[in-house]
Amino acid sequence: MEKLYYADYAVDKMAVQAEDGIVENEMVPEVTEQIQQPTRLVYQWVDITDEFSQACSELHLGELLRDSSFTLFEAMSAIEMMDPKMDAGMLCNQTKRKVLNFEQSIKASIVSIKDLKFPKLIGIMDATLACLVTWLEGHSLAQTVFTNLYLHNPYIIEDRYLKAFCICILKTVDIIRDRVNRAGAFEEEDFQLVTYGFKMAAETSDVRAIGMMKEVEEEVNRIIKNTRSKPGTQRDSDTQTEHCLSVAVYNRLKFYRMFLTVLISFSKEKCEGISQAQRLLTQLIELVPQMKKELSLGIQAEEGGVTKTDYPTIMGFEPLVNQRLLPPTFPRYTMIKSREEALDYMENQLLCRLQTVTLITEITSLHNMLEIFTEFSKTCPCVLSRSLLQLLFLPFNKKLFGIYSIVDTLKESIRNFIAPVALFPKSSLYNNPQAKEYVDAFLTKAVRPVCTIFQITGHNRARQREKWTHILEELAALQEEADKVDSYLHSQLIKTEPTKVHLACFGTWVLYHTLYVMINYTLAGLELELYATYEYHYIFWYLHEMLYAWMVSTLVRADSFLLEHEAQNDQQIKGRYNRKNKKKKRTKTLSREITLNQGHQQLFGGYHKALMGFQLDGRMKKSKFEFDNEEIRYSHRFAPFVHFVTPPMVHYSRYKVRLWLLFCGFFVIIHALYYNLLQYALLAIDSNVASWWGCLPQKRAFISISYFEFIFCSLCFYCKQIVKKKSKLMRLKETHRFLYTFYLAVMSL
Is residue 425 in a domain? Predict the structure, then answer.
């Protein structure tokens, strides 16, 4: 049995310099002379192995010793601690070399802090960018950015270029942390906020950090001018090399300064810095290709053994320096991106996405904003771009873009969506105090769900699905409130204006957002591959028959309200002036959105019918359930929709009934048309498929044309194959065999 020790301690009175201090022992790095000596605790270790063994021997089988200060959490921590498989801090013991901190590396002359050559500066800057990009992808600061020893204490660096660069990086990291934290659109797998006690150059302001970068830029720019080729003179190789290195350092200093300025511009109130950010982002994107060409000018890591925890680095970087700062959790291996990958990430992903974020301020319609947020989320942007978009849309003062009231924006959105009478000044409801109070109360309650929908689009795609279920509960309550408000407003309206109605205006607007959330929830399951193949048929059916059908119906209703409102305005203008306007501004309708949703509806309808055809043909096997059945899975997939009255939840029994009606439709059509289809198929052989379709009598008289279209597509495909037969008799036999086989397949149902 290993020896156990109890750590008692006594305060070294000679070391007491301050009331608050840091406990110093042999495992904590030495502090610099600039820092005041803290209180030091001297541990007095006592061997308790015998006492512990004797106490354990007194416990009977199955007995546990419990203490208020030693719970299950402490017990599990004691088991996991110092286990290489469970404790990330133990990875330091797996390397043979000695791990030194910043101050120790300086004393050992491993790290230089003054008079750094340009190749070293270029290498350090490029390697730091690779660490920064790796951090943005969800790894910890201790294992990425702060493997750069220079960032631990930049104020003792004597090289002006490196000192300004390190302070700029720390300010950049601090702003990114602040923006992401305030937006709250991240999860533990997205981003790590913990700083592990590292300072972020709080003594230096953002303005001063940018000023320091400009100063060193000017110094490097003077070197560039002095080493530039002059007319009539020829530079030697050393001067030319110095010029190229100076340009590379200048480009990097400029890049990091402008990137920090962009982040600061996004933080300005009322979107005042967006124009500056757009200009700087364009310059940054143009600068990246030049930096790619200069990657070879910086120092490179020596080739050597690469392990999960250790890898070769350049001067100033130590992968294991912060390993003991990590909590005793499962080791998480961090693979730092290469310098080429880091620049590609900045050019093709982060900077381009930030450009897209700046365009949101040009959108005035809330529905268009939601569409842009949705499409932006589909590109799987990084946590920084998602957070900046959220803060730009709804900053800390809870006003849209920091300027517009959310309630007023919702009014304008509803007015443009369905044109309710209560929101127009000419209506009697608009000046009715009680009606206005009802509307304002409803809009106030609608603020939170609508803002939450926008915030959900800011999370990563995997986390959005579970968040859609939570917002559905709020929308169900808001829908009930909207129905009450619509009912009251309609009862008041018919008293003063009997020709007008106010039925389901606010309810239709809420229903649109409810269906939007339902569709996104269902499609997220497809995107994340949560559904098994044998579940696709009822997923596609629900999208086709329920969600998109209701969405199209909702949009058509809203569009009819818009057109009716426009017609009333035209009639009033015509009666007032008795003349036609030469140029009339048409009301923006929802025809585009209606067409898109109709296309999605038909697409999922086709998917569903194709899957049912595959099952009938035996090409898709049905699953043999062991611990559940199809009804349980169906109910589980659509469980979040149970709370809603509109649209109503279609339970499994009703789904099976509708599915049986679909099969019956196949049976009726084929049974009635079997013999006629034979001669029409022969006609298609001698002419073409189009004429065969055109000669069908009363083709629009069927109960459901969509069922016949499925059969028709199958026949068209098969007829094309039959045309290749040489003998007409052979073609006749093949056609008859196909139709009879198809007939028997449906009859077998």
Answer: yes
Could you give the CA distance from residue 484 to residue 568 in angstroms, rounded to a whole number?
Answer: 26
CA distance 348 to 366: 28
Q: Buried b vs exposed e over 252-265: b needs ≥16 C-beta within 10 Å?
A: bbbbbbbbbbbbbb
- pLDDT for residue 467 is more than 50: yes
Q: List, for residues 624-667, the tens digit of each pLDDT value.
A: 777 778 889 999 999 999 888 888 999 988 888 877 776 665 55
Q: Compute the distance between CA of residue 204 and CA of residue 174 in angstroms, rounded to an integer.
A: 12
Q: What is the b/e burial string over 407-421, where b = at least 16 CB atoms within 10 angstroms of the residue's CB?
A: eebbbebbbbbbbbb
Cis peptide before 498 (omega within 30 of 0): no
HEC profile for 598-646?
A: HHHHHHHHHHHHHHHHHHHCCCCCCCCCCCCCHHHHHHHHCHHHCCCCC
- DSSP-assigned beta bridge partners for residue 9: 43
- Same domain for 152 and 79: no
Location of structure tokens 């390397």: 95
Domain assignment of residue 36, yes or no = no
This prediction's pTM: 0.77
Count the alpha carbons within 13 Å of 665 in the hemisphere toward its beta carbon. Answer: 17
Boundaries of domain holding 120: 102-229+236-354
- What does DSSP assign to residue 13? G
Residue 37 falls within a domain, yes or no?
Answer: no
Distance, first Cα to last Cα, the chain:
73
Residue 171 and residue 90 share a domain? no
Secondary structure letter of residue 32 according to DSSP: P
For residues 451 and 406, is the Cβ–Cβ distance under 8 A?
Answer: yes
Helix boundaries (H) for 383-432: 383-393, 406-418
Are 218 and 311 in a shared domain?
yes
| Residue 343 CA: distances (Å) to CA of 162, 165, 213, 347, 348 | 20, 17, 20, 6, 8
Long-range contacts of residues 658-661, Cβ cutoff 8 Å, at least 24 apart? 658/541, 658/545, 659/541
Task: Tokens for 185, please give them.
Answer: 């659109």
pLDDT in tens, 531-575: 998 899 999 999 999 999 999 999 999 999 888 878 877 676 665
Tell me which residue has tokens 């106490």: 55
Is 74 in the same domain as 161?
Answer: no
Kindly report each contact of residues 612-618 with a partner whose C-beta sits within 8 Å and lies 24 or more positions away, as own/partner. Answer: 612/537, 612/662, 613/710, 613/714, 615/537, 616/745, 616/746, 616/749, 617/745
If residue 213 lies in a helix (H) or strand (E), which one and from where to where? helix 206-227
**Token pair belonging to 317:** 């970087």
Q: How far apart are CA 573 and CA 569, in angstroms?
A: 6
Residue 400: inside a domain: no
**Which amino acid is it at 700?**
R
Give the separation between CA 167 and CA 172, rounded to whole angstroms.
9
Report residue 170 as tokens: 């720390």
Mean of pLDDT values over 349-368? 91
- Whether 129 and 145 have beta carbons less than 8 Å apart is answered as no
Distances (CA, A) of 327 to 79, 100, 229: 14, 20, 56
Burial class from Cβ neighbours inside 10 Å (0-12, 13-18, 19+) for residue 80 reads middle
Listed residue (373, 379, 337, 336) closest to 455, CA to CA: 373
Could you tell me if 89 and 132 lie in one domain?
no
The number of residues in the chain equals 749
3-class state of residue 148 by DSSP: strand
State how far the Cα of 286 lies from the Cα of 280, in Å rounded to an integer. Answer: 10
- Count the domains in the chain: 4
Q: Are residues 216 and 174 in the same domain?
A: yes
Q: Using the predicted structure, report yes or no on whether residue 391 has a pLDDT greater than 50.
A: yes
Does 722 score more than 60 pLDDT?
no
With vertex at residue 320, the alpha carbon angle to CA 316 and CA 321, rounded to the nearest 5 degrees, is 60
Task: List C-alpha distances in Å: 131 to 84, 337, 669.
Answer: 25, 7, 66
pLDDT for the residue 149 = 95
Q: Are residues 317 and 458 in the same domain?
A: no
